Amino acid sequence: MFENLTEKLEGIFKKLKGRGRLDEENIQNALREIRMALLEADVNFRVVKDFVEEIRVRAVGQEVMDSLTPGQQVVKIVHDRLVELMGGESAQLRFGSRIPAPIMLVGLQGCGKTTTAVKLARFLIRQGKRVSLVSADVYRPAAMEQLEVLGSGIGAGVIKAAPGTDPVTICLQAVEEARSRGYEVLIMDTAGRLHIDEAMMEELRRIKEKVRPAEILFVADAMTGQEAVNVAVRFNEVLGIDGVIMTKMDGDARGGAALSLKAVMGKPIKFVGVGEKVDALEVFHPERMASRILGMGDILSLVEKAQAAVDEKAARDLERKIRKNEFTLEDFRDQLMQIRKMGSLQDILSMIPGLGKMRGLKDMMPDEGELIKVKAIIDSMTKQERRDYLIIDGERRKRIARGSGTTVQDVNRLLKSYGEMRKLMKKMTTKEGIKALKRGHIRF
Amino acid sequence: MIGLGKTGFFDRLKKGLEKTRKVLFTDIDDLILGEKKIDQALFDELEEALIRADVGPVFTMELMDRIRDQVKRKELDRADLLRKVLKDTMTAILKGCEAPLVIPPAGTFTIMVVGVNGTGKTTTIGKLAHQFRNEGLTVLVAAADTFRAAAIEQLEVWARRAAVPVIRQKINADPAAVVFDALQSAKAGATRVVLVDTAGRLHTKVNLMEELKKMRRVMAREIEGAPHEVLLVMDATTGQNGIAQAKMFKEEAGVTGICLTKLDGTAKGGVILRIAGELRIPIRYIGVGESLEDLRPFRAEEFVEALFARDGE
Ligand SMILES: Nc1nc2c(ncn2[C@@H]2O[C@H](COP(=O)(O)OP(=O)(O)OP(=O)(O)O)[C@@H](O)[C@H]2O)c(=O)[nH]1
Ligand SMILES: [Mg+2]
Fold it and tell me: How many interchain CB pairs under 8 A, A with B?
C-alpha cells in the first residue's frame, strides 16, 4: 500500500521532471489519491476533508527537494503532518494524589475493555505499583469471572462485589476496599454500552460523579470505521475522557480511527493493545501510527522487535552472506534459533504490509521439537559439511543421523529445506523476488 | 463538528420499513428532494452518505460513477430519481446475498460460528439457539472457545437462557476435541442443530486459522457435510478492515454466511455492501441488541433504506 500511494503519486508527478515546484494544478490529483488512501484507512470523512485541505496549503509552492521525487515529497508532507497531529501531549497516566488512584475504562461492547484493564494493571505492577481491579459489568454473562481469572493471573488484587450490587455502589465500595488493602491504583472495568443508550450513559456519569476517577480512558477498537468519532465524542460529552487506548492493533486494520479521535477530541492516545496476552500493551507511537495509516506497515515496530533479538552486526553479516550466496548450514541453524528468540515469525511477518497474508508461512515455522532435531543434526556435522552441504553423501547422512539420534529421512528433509531456503534467499535479494514475495507468489 | 446520530440503526430499520409500508412505492426522500437539480452538490451529498456508512471510498466511487454515467447518457435526468436509482443499485447488490439460513427437514445441521474478537459470536449463538428452539428443533451448543477466560461460563449462561444443553471441557482443552464430543453427543441424541462457539481470532493469525481448519476436519469426519454452515459474525462498527476479515475467513475457514451484529448502534455496516459485491457471501442475520430476541433475518431493502435515513428521521 505504501508502494501503492507512493507509486500512484509518482505516476501523477511524472510530468514534473527533476526539480520543480508543487502547484495547485499538479497537486490536485495527488490530493485525490491521499483522500482515497485516508478514507480506505477509516479516517473519518470530515477529518479527511480538513486534512487534505491542510496538505494542499502546505504543499503548494514547496520546492521539491533534491533528495526526493515529488511523489515521495508529498508522502513525506502527509506523513509529517499525521505525526504532528497524533503526537504532542504526553501519554503519561495521571494518578492524582488520592490513594487509590481510580482509573476507569469505558467503551462500546466488544472493544476489549476487560483484557485492556488487565494489561494496564500488569503494566503498572511492572512499574512497581500495587494495583487492584474491579468489574462493574453486571450485564454481560461471566464478565466478572473473566476479569477475576485474568487479574489473579498477573498478581493484581481482584475486588469482588456481592451479587446484586449496582455498578455505582460496586465502584464506590471497591475504592474503600482498595484503600484499606493498601492498593495504590484501582482499575475499574465497566460494561460495554452504546453511546446512544441514555440510561447506560447515565450510569457511567454517576460512577464518575461518585468516584471522581483520576483517569477516564476510552477504549477503541482499531478496526472501527466512520462511526468511531461519533461514539467517542458522545462518551467525551458525558464523561470528559482523558485519553484513548486503541485495541486489536496486532491485526491488519489501518486504524484511521486513531487520527480521527485525536483530531476531533484532542485527547491523546496513550496505549495500544497488540495481542490477546496480558503483556501485549504498548505505549502509543505517533510515527508508527502514521506509517500504518498510510499503509506503510509497522516497519519501525518490526525493526525494533528484530533488533531486540538479533544484534545488528549479525544481521548485516547475514545479509552479506545471503547476497554472496554463502549462507551455510551453520547460519541456517543460527537463523532458526534466532527466529525462536524473536517470538513468532508469523507475528513479525504480519507487520510487513502484504506479507502478513502470505501463504505457506506456517510451513516455514518449525515447532519446538523440530528445532531441537535440526540443531542436533547440524551439530553432528563436521565443520566442512556445514560449510559445503553438497559433499554430504549417503554415507555421511547415515553417520549424521546416528550421531544426532535422528533418522536418515530427518537429515534428508533438513538438507532439502535448507536447499530451498538458499534458493528462496537468493530470490529474495533480487528486485523481482521481493515483488513476488510481497504479492505472496513465492511458496515455501 | 460532527453530526451526532442519536437514533440507532435498528430504529431506522424499523422506521424505514414503516415508511415503505406507508407510502408504498414513493420514497419520502424523493418527495422532499423533488425540486432539486442534479448538480455537484447532490453527488457530493450522496457520496458523503455512502462514505459515512462505511461503504468505503473505492466502492463508493464505483457506485457514483455508474450513476454519473447514466446522467451523462441522459438516461437519468431527474434529481428525485437519482437517489432512488442509487438505492436500487445497492439493493440489487445486497439482494444477491439475501439468503436466510434454512435448516433441512432431517438430520443434524452443524453451524460453526467464527469471527474476530468481540464481535458478538457467543451472544449470537444464544440468540440462534433460542430461535431454533422456538421453531421446535432440538439444539446443542459446543463450548469450543477454550482459550478466553470465562468464555465457557459465558456460553453456559446463554445456553441456560435458551434452555439448550452445552458440551464443554476444561479451559485450554483442544477445541477440536470439544467439537468431537459435541458431534458424538448430537449423533447419539439425534439433535437437529449443533452450534459451535469458537474463540475470537484475528484473521491475520495463521496458526489460529489453522485451528479452525482442524475443527472443520474433525466435524467432517463425524457428520457428512459438516460444518454445514460457517457463520462469520461481524460487528457493524467495523470499517474497511471488514473486507480483509471476510476474505480471510472465507478462504481459510470456508465461511458460508454472515451475521452483522450491533446494528442497534449508530454504525451502518456499509462495508457489507463491498463484501456482498466482491465476495458474494450470503448475509443471513442481523444482530440488533443484547437479548435473546434481538436477531433478525437480513433484508436488503430495509438495510439500504436505513443506510440512507438521516439522523432524527
Ligand atoms: N448492542 C449490541 N451489543 C451486542 C450485540 N451482539 C453482541 N453484543 C455485545 O458485544 C459484546 C461482545 O459479545 P460476545 O458475544 O461476548 O462476543 P464474542 O464474539 O463471543 O467475543 P469473544 O469470544 O471474546 O471474541 C457483549 O457485551 C455483547 O453483549 C448486538 O447485536 N448489539
Ligand atoms: Mg465468545
Answer: 167
Dihedral (CA of B125, B130, B134, B139) sign? positive
Give all strands of the β-sheet with B109-114 in edge-to-edge order: B166-167, B139-144, B193-198, B109-114, B229-235, B257-261, B283-287, B295-297
Kindly give the number of the ligand 1 atom that is closest to the alpha carbon of B201.
25
- Classify each residue of A314-327 as buried b or exposed e, where b means 16 or more C-beta atoms within 10 Å of its C-beta: eeeebeeebeeeeb
CA distance A284 to A244: 10
Tens of pLDDT, residue by residue over A331-354, are 777 766 665 555 554 455 554 444
How large is the average pLDDT for residues B181-197? 97
Cis, bond preceding A100 (omega within 30 deg of 0) = yes
Protein residues with CB under 6 Å of any ligand 1 atom: A 109-110, 140, 192, 194; B 115, 117-123, 145, 148, 151, 199-200, 233, 261-262, 264-265, 287-290, 294
| Burial label, A163 (beta-carbon count in 10 A; 0-12, 13-18, 19+) | exposed
Residue A197, by phi and psi: left (phi above 0), alpha (psi -120 to 50) or beta? beta
Average pLDDT value for residue range A313-342: 68
pLDDT category of residue A44 using cuts at 50, 70 and 90: very high
Alpha carbon separation from A178 to A1, A24, A160, A187, A275 (Å, rounded)? 49, 61, 11, 10, 28
* Ligand 1 pocket, mutate which of B122, B196, B201, B205 (most atoms under 8 A from CB): B122
Contacts of A350 in chain B (CB under 8 A): 204-205
Å from CA of B11 to ligand 1 middle = 19
Q: Which residue of A has its CA nearest to B51?
A: A45
Query: Cβ separation of B57 and A36 shorter than 8 Å?
Result: yes
**Are the C-beta atoms of residues A133 and A159 closer than 8 Å to each other?**
yes
Give yes or no for A43 touching B (CB within 8 A).
Answer: no
User: Is pLDDT at B294 greater than 90 in this prediction?
Assistant: yes
Question: Which strands, in side-by-side order, build the sheet including A131-135?
Answer: A157-159, A131-135, A185-189, A101-106, A215-221, A243-247, A269-273, A281-283
- The distance of A294 to chain B (nearest Cα, Å) reads 14
pTM summary value: 0.80
DSSP code for B33 = G
Which is more confidently placed, A169 or A406? A169
In tens, the pLDDT along A362-372 reads: 445 556 667 77
